[in-house]
Amino acid sequence: MLAKGGQSIAVTPSGKTVYVPIISLKAVIPIRTATNTALPPIPVGDEPFAMVVTPNGRTVYVGNASSVTPIRVSTTRRHSGWQPASQPAW
Question: Least packed by Cβ within 10 Å: which of 7, 48, 75, 76?
Fold first, then answer.
């Protein structure tokens, strides 16, 4: 059972991995669909709530309370050194 969260999911174009945001962990959990196996959580910041996978399936962008975190699908890790250009204006 996953911790509190999971308000949305993102699926890679291949269908091999599903990403679930877990608010209480401040993380996203990748799940391999073929085996239904959860991989280690990927820290993404406060209140992850929305995600989108790029059409080429290489990156998952995770929206949270104050920023956007990109995850490299091939390694299931955050892109290192990436910073958003500016704070969202909403």
Answer: 75
Radius of gyration of the chain (CA): 12
Q: What is the DSSP letter of 58?
A: S
Sequence-distant (6+) residues with CB within 8 A of 1 are: none
Close Cβ partners of 43 (under 8 Å, ≥ 6 residues apart)? 26, 27, 78
- Residue 84 in domain: no
- Sign of the CA dihedral with 72 first, then 75, 9, and 66 last: negative
User: How, if at all, do strands 50-53 and 42-43 pair?
Assistant: unpaired
Block means of pLDDT (10 residues each) for the chain, 90 residues, are 66 92 89 94 87 90 85 69 50
Domain assignment present for 1: no
Q: Return the closest-CA partner of residue 27 out of 11, 1, 6.
A: 6
